[in-house]
Amino acid sequence: MPNTKTEKQKMLAGEFYTAVDDELQADQAAARHWMERYNRSIGLTPQQHAELLHEGLGAVGKHCVVRPPFHLDYGYNITLGDGVFMNFNCVILDVVQVEIGDGTQIGPGVQILTADHPREPALRAQGLEFGRPIKIGKNVWIGAGALIMPGVTIGDDALIGAGSVVTRDVAPGVTVVGNPARPR
């Protein structure tokens, strides 16, 4: 039986998909338009920033601060809990779900990357990609320049050292540092 899923449905399910699909290209264009507006919003009030965040992201809790510039793929796969703070120049590649828990603080230049690519050269040559969701717990602190790689879960109260590359899950309350990030 042929696969009748759209490329967007495949993307959201974490299956192989082709990003050059017309529907996904339209979604990315809408996200770029939103980012353009958001990244020019430095002079807006906190309420106006909140309204823009609600417009561009899947779900936004109370009292969230995301300092521009901020970059994303789609926006609709991002969920921010109450009181999330993201400093300047953060990137979220949200081809699948990214959940960030209440009270989490994210330093400048952090990249949260759900997008992944096949390891097999023949599949990569076809332009296929897939995503693996990222879940960041409550009261997590992620230091400047850290990279959170596809499929990672970070437990509540964890601390990610600046510049760390997180390739594996981090247990609640654990501090990790380095490349690759390891418990300290």
TrEMBL record:
EC numbers, comma separated: 2.3.1.-
Entry keyword set: Acyltransferase, Repeat, Transferase
A Gene Ontology molecular function term of the record: acyltransferase activity
Domain Maltose/galactoside acetyltransferase: 8-62
Any Pfam family matching the protein: Mac
Family (UniProt): Belongs to the transferase hexapeptide repeat family.
Name listed for the protein in its UniProt record: Sugar O-acetyltransferase
Species for this entry: Duganella zoogloeoides
